[in-house]
């Protein structure tokens, strides 16, 4: 590929990542599947920037930090179409609601939500809202930077899990996307680190450590319980990594 062809390809990959990970009204275009996974952190940074901006506007209008945090969280859910929230609920139901691998996968595919899913969804939303609230109390600019960082780093873990674990089922969004190679995962991780360093500073190394540790734990549980990864597992990993990043920034 000629150098002058690389830039359009990069933009195509970023658009594909945003189309996959958000509900932003973008035109369809070429999609290289898992090869575009390097752009997930950049897509996350854009999602985080938009959601954080809504929180900043709420803060500038004089709303208290708690409501500014709620506005940012609501915007994030709307922008992503609640796909990751749905994933963490399905994952909790499946991994802890079934006794066999086949039954767990069947539960995860079911559109209904059970007790484990409800509890996981409530706790995860509360954790993110509380983290946003504390960040906006510190300062609007700091909250915006932290939300961007968490959104970017948490989406960098998705290619890593896709690469590390086999597909748990022979169909679904994750299977259709494919598995990225190690180079793609390394680029995604590098971009996430650059974003974290740019917005958070040297504490980015600690942030990435906690995100990685959380992801390893989730990947281990998924491998043990369902034999690999699915789209729901990836979404759950993103949510848990985002919470880990936000809490590590606060603490």
Short description:
The protein has 11 helices and no strands.
Describe the 3D structure.
By secondary structure, the chain is mostly helical. The protein has a domain at 39-81 and 131-250. Helices cover 78% and strands 0% of the residues. The protein has 11 helices and no strands. α4 crosses α6 (115-138), α6 packs antiparallel against α7 and α9 (182-200) packs antiparallel against α10 (204-226).
Instruction: Note the run of SSEs as H and E.
Output: HHHHHHHHHHH
CA-based gyration radius: 17 Å
User: Judging from the principal axes of the Cα atoms, what is the shape?
Assistant: globular
Proportion of residues in β-strands? under 5%
Low-confidence stretches: none
Structural class: mainly alpha
DSSP strand tally: 0
Mean pLDDT: 91
Number of helices: 11
> Which quaternary structure do these chains form?
single chain
Largest sheet: none
Summarize the amount of helix as a percent range: over 70%
